[in-house]
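Lab channel / #folding
Pinned by the channel admin:
"Please post every new chain as: sequence first, then the structure tokens as a reply. Keep commentary short and put observations after the output so the thread stays searchable."

First post following the new format, from NK:
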Amino acid sequence: MAKPIEFSLFAPYNKGAALIGSFSDWQEIPMEKGDDGYFRTSVELEDGVYKYKFRVQSNSWFFEPEQWVDVTDPQATDIDELSGKDDGVIRVKDGERITDTYVWQHDDKPLPADHELVIYELHVGDFSGGEDDPYARGKYKHVIEKLDYLCELGINAIELMPLKEYPGDYSWGYNPRHFFATESSYGSTADLKKLIDECHGRGIRVILDGIYNHSEASAPLTQIDHDYWYHHEPRDPDNNWGPEFNYEHYDEKLDIHPAWKFIGETIRFWISEYHLDGIRYDAARQIANYDFMHWIVQEAKKTASMKPFYNVAEHIPETTSITNVDGPMDGCWHDSFYHCILEHICGDTFDLERLKDVIDCKRQGFLGATNVVNYLTNHDHNHVMVELGNREIFNEEAFRRAKLGVAILMTAVGVPLIWMGEEFGEYKPKQPESSKIDWTLLGNDLNRSLFDSYKGLTNLRKSNHALYTENIDFIHENPEAKVLAYTRWNDEGSRVVVIANFSENFLGDYHVPNFPSPGTWHEWTGNYDVEAGDDGIITDLGPYEAKVFVSQLY
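Reply from TO:
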């Protein structure tokens, strides 16, 4: 039985709008504008799937004045991209508009708190499959097939590169055209929900990379009334990726900030519809509006309700102001950590003070363990193996240095993030074209050994809660030998000591005084016990090696 379904479009300063769709043989259905700035109409529809668009008299400066243009609904939750027309898709079931019929299975499962996270960043299109894979992969369902692998690695959060519908079938997703619709080349909305649900069933949180600085050039809002939502022109032409949302613009008549309203609706929709556990805010430095960020973070947390929700800014270079007492975000990407640790494991430099600054972010002015997200690399940078190879460092030598890197990553103050493939030594250079992970590398001893290091240190973080705190002391510094040692602890008696050799020399019977306590300690990476005396510990340090000692008291 047909029931009235409402269609609405917020376009407060446009003169006219009409609805066209498969249900009207693409003939215009007039829409009435209310005082709230919405055009509305209702159509009697049976249960089923329909395509539709709006026909609007545009206010955008690149059209003729009040020219009629056909635009996709800015709030369409599904897009028919295959037709080349970007029609919106609406589903009607039991007389109601729905996104899909997915039924959540694991909403009751407990999820880790922010300070417990080990995040794994992945790109859906490149994560599964690989050169040896005879089948086309790169969909949500193929990520589900890899969840057992991720559980073995020990991560407890995945950060998905952007999933909003973009033009074409391959992209990193930083060119979002449709903000409420998911990328159709990865699968359906129900497929995405199943992936998130399966993650929750395994105690893995899902963080989404969100683009709120800009949209792709022909996104619907640009066509409707460009300067109502966006800055007229780029504020920083060197860092411009498309029309930039104007968070300063205030509409006095309606008492709203239009860009706040739209992005707020987007974020509330994604959190409630897809049960997300966090958002990474891309290009926060370009958003450049802390009032908006404060507001949007509160909106996100209100929508998530009782669930933990982690808001992370990508602000390059990082700034403490974005996360500290008055700062809007919970955390931010710690780019100085990446640069400093990479330069040290590559042997480009040795600077004790810089090392200490990035290992203990409090020295840079950050307040706590969730204020920074540390990484050895991410989607914006080459894999560590590429950087080492560029310096003619290969084979065992390269893997040794990569293991030094992960020991620092997993024991520094902050939340660690792993870029997909880094955990087993993926060595393809960064490129904008498709670049699937080469899973066959795990069959090599060196690559497998690196994976085991990641796995061991990830599990150390989860079992030894000293690493959840912001407590750290640098207990030994030797600039001549290029050795640094530090200890982490919590109030329950858990303790970890890291001794790192950043030189190419083997240091036999190396003495570290000032050990936190005498007694038996367990060396985690090599799996053996060692006795510390009143005068500290004596150990052999290989070139570019870190040893991780765990107190046996806990």
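NK: The mean pLDDT is 95.
TO: also worth noting, The CA atoms of residues 487 and 497 lie 4 Å apart.
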